[in-house]
Hints:
InterPro entries: ArsR-like_HTH, HTH_HxlR, WH-like_DNA-bd_sf, WH_DNA-bd_sf. By secondary structure, the protein is α+β, with helices and mostly antiparallel strands.
Amino acid sequence: MTTLNRPCAPDGHVCGIDTAMEVIGGKWKVLILWALHEHPHRRFGELRRLLPGITEKVLASHLREMEADGVVRRVSHDEVPPRVEYSLTDAGKRLNEALEPLAAWGRERRTG
């Protein structure tokens, strides 16, 4: 018999934090959110330079996932050469606002 550590809702999420962590989980997603907040409407290469250490594969994968989750918008401009820009959706902006207290906590912990 399997023992459950916590009750499970029909959609697999226990609470709002569980749902949010699915969207922002991992090392890079919150940093991508921050970069797009600080530098809106960025191209892929610009984002990569803003996030030293991230690989192209991971950035591309996370951007696709974040677009599917509705927090990042991808706009392809009909130009030669092709130009694609990424920005935050309204949901992505609200998510960043929700993360601000966590960022403040981290800044306090780092300095004090």
